[in-house]
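look at this stuff:

>
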Amino acid sequence: MASAAGDLEALRATLAPDVEWTEMAGFPLAGTYRTPDGVTANVMEKLGQDWDGWTAHDDTYVVDGENVVVLARCTAANKATGKPVDVRVAHHFVVRGGLIVRFERFADTALVRDAMRG
């Protein structure tokens, strides 16, 4: 289980210096972020600013070489609206030398947007 408000220093230590972290189109933070500091500042810190308790609840790991797919649920409550979100996600990681070099989130972005609407 991982939380957006978790230990950002520990997260940065798992990211390769040239990491590429992609949040899918339609997600509030859509785009590709680079460097450990870029990922934590533009994704984790912003999730923590906008959502209470943003947490990924991992349930299934599929590993094929350096590819790791994690099937999970993300839960949180939007700070502006108070509305909860509980959305299924798939996270695709490429792990090389023990570090995350690439990440991509797949999620039902409509559920996340609905929680953000007052």
About this structure: The mean pLDDT is 92. The chain has three helices and seven strands. Helices lie at 8-14, 36-50, 109-116.
